[in-house]
Amino acid sequence: APVAPGAAADGALRDACVVEVYRARVVVATLLTGDFGPIFELWHARFSRATDGRCALAVCCLDAAAERVARDVAARAGRPVRVLGAADGFRPAADRRDLWTQRLAFVARLVAEEAAGGGRDVVHSDCDAFWLGDARALVDGGAAPARFSVDHGLGRGAKPFALCCGFFRLRASAASLALLATWREATDRVGDDQVAVNALYDRDGRSFDLAPYERVQRCNCHHATTANPLVWHPWLDATVDDKVYVWGAVLARLDAGDAG
Fold it and tell me: What region does 177 belong to: left with phi over 0, alpha with psi -120 to 50, or beta?
């Protein structure tokens, strides 16, 4: 059928309005320890550039140094931040299992708050999952409670990829809270939240959508970066200082328009 003059423009404007409404109903969450402070600074610079000042950010700080960094970095950027720390029951992690357990407790708290009235979806982003663009709208996938990024370099179970906990979205819903409860129980058993969530996906994938890899990229030696992701989530077996040096150099090249 012929398209009326201006219909395409009207459609584009309508789509833009939908995206803007969705961006306004998202809380971005990240976990921070003091030793990762320099990486958080690198992350926050890109996050602030990719989003506007209305974007809600919550940071779960597991030690006093992390609380100072989160507040200082946000203040220098002139951006709002909600810091949850020792006063909220979070503490230095005893081991990796405890780290993942506290991360899920943090996310569950935010989802419960939003399900009780705020209504905003919760987007969890590791502080080494760098926002090259505004990634809030792309996680508005299907009706499933959860939407996860994927890692093609690490297969889990029968599938040739793994759900990656470095970037995921949870709806503000009872279904998400039920999924989180099951996920936390599984993490307590196996000691790793990513292993646990992949086992849940393998058992029944109906609670999950997958974010398109070309837009949210978990990059390592097994799977190279492709052009123009909104989120670049690299992996590097190195010290924090070396990560900041290497990732900072790559991000500077991307800022300069070099996508090679």
Answer: alpha
Cα 27 to Cα 226: distance, rounded to the nearest angstrom: 27
- Residues 39 and 58: their CA atoms lie apart, in Å, by 16
Distance (Å, whole) CA 102 – CA 174: 20
The pTM score is 0.87
Q: Is the dihedral of CA 11, 16, 20, 22 positive or negative?
A: positive
- Cβ–Cβ contacts within 10 Å for residue 16, how many? 11
Which H or E run includes 148?
A: strand 146-151
> CA-to-CA distance for 105 and 111, rounded, in angstroms?
10
Nearest to 156 by CA among 107, 124, 203: 203
Give me the phi and psi of 63, to 5 degrees please.
-160, 170
Structure-derived torsion over alpha carbons of residues 77, 238, 62, 232, reported in degrees to the nearest 10: 50
Q: What is the pLDDT along the chain (260 residues), one digit of tens a residue?
A: 433 444 444 444 444 443 444 455 899 999 999 999 999 999 999 999 999 888 899 999 999 999 999 999 999 999 999 999 999 999 999 999 999 999 999 999 999 999 999 899 999 999 999 999 998 877 766 789 999 999 876 655 667 789 999 999 999 999 999 999 999 999 999 999 999 999 999 999 999 999 988 888 887 544 445 667 889 999 889 999 999 999 999 899 877 776 55
Measure the CA–CA gap between 103 and 119, rounded to whole angstroms. Answer: 21
In DSSP terms, 27 is beta-bridged to 56, 122
CA 101/CA 80 separation, integer angstroms:
26
